[in-house]
Amino acid sequence: xxxxxxxxxxxxxxxxxxxxxxxxxxxxxxxxxxxxxxxxxxxxxxxxxxxxxxxxxxxxxxxxxxxxxxxxxxxxxxxxxxxxxxxxxxxxxxxxxxxxxxxxxxxxxxxxxxxxxxxxxxxxxxxxxxxxxxxxxxxxxxxxxxxxxxxxxxxxxxxxxxxxxxxxxxxxxxxxxxxxxxxxxxxxxxxxxxxxxxxxxxxxxxxxxxxxxxxxxxxxxxxxxxxxxxxxxxxxxxxxxxxxxxxxxxxxxxxxxxxxxxxxxxxxxxxxxxxxxxxxxxxxxxxxxxxxxxxxxxxxxxxxxxxxxxxxxxx
Amino acid sequence: xxxxxxxxxxxxxxxxxxxxxxxxxxxxxxxxxxxxxxxxxxxxxxxxxxxxxxxxxxxxxxxxxxxxxxxxxxxxxxxxxxxxxxxxxxxxxxxxxxxxxxxxxxxxxxxxxxxxxxxxxxxxxxxxxxxxxxxxxxxxxxxxxxxxxxxxxxxxxxxxxxxxxxxxxxxxxxxxxxxxxxxxxxxxxxxxxxxxxxxxxxxxxxxxxxxxxxxxxxxxxxxxxxxxxxxxxxxxxxxxxxxxxxxxxxxxxxxxxxxxxxxxxxxxxxxxxxxxxxxxxxxxxxxxxxxxxxxxxxxxxxxxxxxxxxxxxxx
Amino acid sequence: xxxxxxxxxxxxxxxxxxxxxxxxxxxxxxxxxxxxxxxxxxxxxxxxxxxxxxxxxxxxxxxxxxxxxxxxxxxxxxxxxxxxxxxxxxxxxxxxxxxxxxxxxxxxxxxxxxxxxxxxxxxxxxxxxxxxxxxxxxxxxxxxxxxxxxxxxxxxxxxxxxxxxxxxxxxxxxxxxxxxxxxxxxxxxxxxxxxxxxxxxxxxxxxxxxxxxxxxxxxxxxxxxxxxxxxxxxxxxxxxxxxxxxxxxxxxxxxxxxxxxxxxxxxxxxxxxxxxxxxxxxxxxxxxxxxxxxxxxxxxxxxxxxxxxxxxxxx
Amino acid sequence: xxxxxxxxxxxxxxxxxxxxxxxxxxxxxxxxxxxxxxxxxxxxxxxxxxxxxxxxxxxxxxxxxxxxxxxxxxxxxxxxxxxxxxxxxxxxxxxxxxxxxxxxxxxxxxxxxxxxxxxxxxxxxxxxxxxxxxxxxxxxxxxxxxxxxxxxxxxxxxxxxxxxxxxxxxxxxxxxxxxxxxxxxxxxxxxxxxxxxxxxxxxxxxxxxxxxxxxxxxxxxxxxxxxxxxxxxxxxxxxxxxxxxxxxxxxxxxxxxxxxxxxxxxxxxxxxxxxxxxxxxxxxxxxxxxxxxxxxxxxxxxxxxxxxxxxxxxx
Lengths: 315, 315, 315, 315
What we know:
Four copies of one chain form a homotetramer.
Chain A: H1 5-15, E1 19-21, H2 27-30, E2 37-39, E3 43-51, H3 54-65, H4 75-84, E4 95-103, H5 104-110, E5 117-120, E6 141-143, E7 151-154, H6 157-182, H7 200-203, E8 212-220, H8 221-231, H9 238-254, H10 256-267, E9 270-272, H11 274-284, H12 291-294, H13 298-307
Antiparallel strand pairs in A: 2-3, 3-4, 4-8, 5-8, 6-7
Helix pairs in contact in A: 4-10, 9-10
């Protein structure tokens, strides 16, 4: 990721602010505020604003439960309790805003999380940057053989080179033709003084889905955790996971207690179905149970055995 | 409104904070941060946190429009443009959090605005305060004769006294019986050592709808303006308008440019229907048009004439 | 629950319809369409409209996964898969609308589920029915000693009688005074021809929270399941659980396959935290682990042991 | 638009259903149910399900207003009243579901309307159709000179031909290379038996933004009208307006009374600002007012004069 001079200057200016406020602040997060954290080849995330911290969650919960919360001795105890019992509203009391640069095909996954506020760069108004995502060699994976939406082995050698050449060639060619149709280069140079340019809202359709876009994305902590639970998961596509992982780091700096509860109860946790519970109960009693008796499908059975480290029971 | 000693102390502590932040701050709003602004007889609103200011809206809009916005010379011009053309998402980039104390029947109106985050005092957990709303004499109005949901003349004299006595008497009696059923007074005193108390989640049903509750309420500027547009309107019930008016003041301190655009384009503006436009066009040309020719109902006709100060055309 | 003659007539008329449609229909649900299912002493739920069935979920999923879903042989298999992996959007493709009559203090819990459409009877416009909830003797429970928001033993004998007398007496008195202030009885009779009535929007504040209200409530299947997961749970307050249980029955009739998956993966399932998983893994291997080694709080430990029927390990 | 044989067969089967229901039905909408209405060169919309009709709005409003609405004599009168006064919730009681095929760059605009349920064809799972949007000659417009996001004159002759050639050539080439990377043609043919294919979730990034995708899109009438108000507007991009116009037709068939009120109060209506009202008032009184006295910007002044047909006052 290479920032333009203008961008670097803007970030420096933002970071040099020293404002006085009566609001709660989070020194750990302030340290990285506005900083562009590089993701993929040209992308980044930046935390550009936030509201609240761990104590804001506690404050909201104590309003709800009134004197009822006096028994819970610590803030950490209360936050863990809230997370464990799926009490959602106190976590909505914290808000965060990111500036994100990301490839369009990832933006299309991301935007499906509807409970967020978004302002995206508009290619109806302006010309998009000449930047497109090309996977690093270690992420150039084959289609998985047993998972319709997964990746298999890494592709190497000649074929890898060919794939990268195709991606690069097509992105460059379509971008050049985009400029041609606009009759204008990204830097504003007019290509042919005698010609007129195609409307931007039309010309953009020629770009490939790995072209980078950017947006401001603002959400509350609850919805951010819902996003991260799905997108920092190992089943998520690598490219969005790269963003989610970096965001997890910012959550850790921002609300460390909630972060820990989230990792314990959501990310590291497992949902066991009613049928699955019967199986585990039997096994705990030392009884024998087969997949047929369990009512589970073969796939469910294996997922359950893996979750509880029962590798010898895989079928 | 009388704050408890504990509340006054908490507010003082919150206000004495002097934190350093790189985030944008709004000195005018900081001045009233945490302060309890009295509403009705026992209610209040307090701004307890906020994110962003007028420049945050501009910042988000400029990401959307990229180089395309260079022509709009000032921030104020851009904000007015956004408001006029119903561009909504940049206004979602600002967030505010209130602590509100309000009667339950008003809370029930308020909560219908769904795009907000709420943590309410729970009467399942804790005992509610012994505070209930009694209208000031000048707000004790009769049912309107021509508007099913409005108020008419103020009720005075004997009848006013009687109404207030009934409201007060019933609220006190039902609250006393609430304590009786709980076998516990608000201050924690047990009433009868030998008896057991009814579950709080049940006993609360005996309270009247003018009992005060409280909540933390957080929303973005766009949804706040949607709320204020309806609730600071003269058709809104007086009791919720009292809250909305106080909140309008905080919006003015927080985002003065957006506030002005909001007052001009939304609050002070008028929606003219297609049929209404035809009428105004004719009148502007000096032509004559009757209600029958207009296709408007009598009521619509009068609303239109009033909006444009054509009192002599009322029918 | 006693329906008025007018209501019974309206329901009969609705049920006598025989319309032809090309939309998918669910004969089992049609059988109870419009029927008022009694809840509590004066409440009810009625399914008044619906959109889609189990096949609509499959249809939407197959659009998403395209040819990718061909491998999943059956609709039931696909729905179970979606539920297990928290795929949410296909379940949003079914919609249902209820007409509900319920006490106000329950309505206040219910309305916190924001992702639904609601039209409630307005006491600003109209006079509320003279109906209020009084718990049946077996639901008159004491405050729980160890759970701030729960119920303990049933209250019996003299104290029970006294509680019911207070609830009944206060509800009747406040309702009578409500009529007095309105200067109008529910049936429209004017009380004092020479007096004027207080505005309805004010008089309503004198009613107690067990007064019945009613609304139309419409939501999609995903959000309905989120509602039922919390409200049909044994930790939910009995009075809202009564509604949730009746709604669960209608879900079973409407989308039987989704219902079964929901009961298996959500209602009957258990979330095990990362720390909890370590404990179960150890126990499955026959190893010994104490609460101190586990990192769990005493309360969490006991919840885990109960979930897996390890009663001898309770501490 | 050319449907595959399989699609045509599925539509025929859906349309041949004759189910009996007690739900309200709309014969006019049933006539076009499931039918693929062609949009652009390869797109379509199909209404695939609906819930409610004009009477459902009235029904919900009458629950809200109870006896209070008896005075409004007709359903049409009530619906117009609701629309005029921005009463939103009754319109949420109707729901509709569309199946839409549309170019990706339009899908990206469309998805910004968050209050809807969506299931989109997933290119992580399945291979996208070889179909891409090419504008018809009359829609090949130049960038507007005075509107950053608008279109100017139609481009013709040599330049038009060149633009279409570029769009077509690039779309075909990138699609061919997409198949090459996948090592699989759309019809399932493997290209090189010895090679392995790139993961679908990666290969898709090579496609251009005019490639067609499809989704099921479900929303309530209120949010549909919000969508149509913006997207059937003359400022909307032609390509999304084409979809919105076709959807407006289905709304007219579905809820004709609401449609008419919507066209009168929203689509054909004008919002006049507080300052704008002052200008119109003066003009109605025959007084003179200049743009400088008005406080309006030149642009606002002209918008106002155009809205009220005062062409001689344009500056």
